[in-house]
Amino acid sequence: MTQSTEVSIPECFSYFQAADSSVGRSAKWRLERFAKSHLDISDDLAIVIDADAADPGDRAAKNASHRLAGTVRSALATLAGEPVVVALGVPNSITDARLIAQGTWVRAIIAIGPRHLARAVERANALLATPGAPS
User: Fold this and answer.
1) Is there a contact between 114 and 41 (Cβ–Cβ < 8 Å)?
2) Residues 30 and 52 both lie in one domain
3) What is the pLDDT of residues 71-123, one digit of tens each?
4) Domains in the chain: how many in total?
5) Could you tell me which residues are beta bridge partners of residue 3?
6) Burial (CB count <10 Å: 0-12, 13-18, 19+), residue 97
7) What is the rounded CA–CA span in Å between residue 101 and residue 69?
8) How far apart are CA 4 and CA 61, in angstroms?
9) Range of 96's domain?
10) CB of 30 within 8 A of CB of 39?
């Protein structure tokens, strides 16, 4: 029997609404108690990409992670040049991604701060409302 590989992709998350609900406040209180520290509900965006560069037949596995890091860096630079990314004002956040090559693994971390993210969301809303916007 063949299983379907289709996975529904959520169109949006209600994180901020949940953070301000009684359940969200309760979870925050428990986390703060466990951490013994005040926790700020973050409005940053972070995208973390983990990729294994190891090829079972590759004898030069040490170089594989550095090759993959270069490929990821090139892919991010290409993505940063896309018109919609430029229109949102986030190309520098993408090209400034932190890349870490450790062992056979490569990790890319793209971070966008709260003010920059708010501006990008405003631009995205404007683009979505404009007919003929870049796609």
Assistant:
1) no
2) no
3) 999 999 999 999 999 999 999 999 999 998 888 889 898 888 888 888 888 89
4) 2
5) none
6) buried
7) 7
8) 34
9) 43-129
10) no
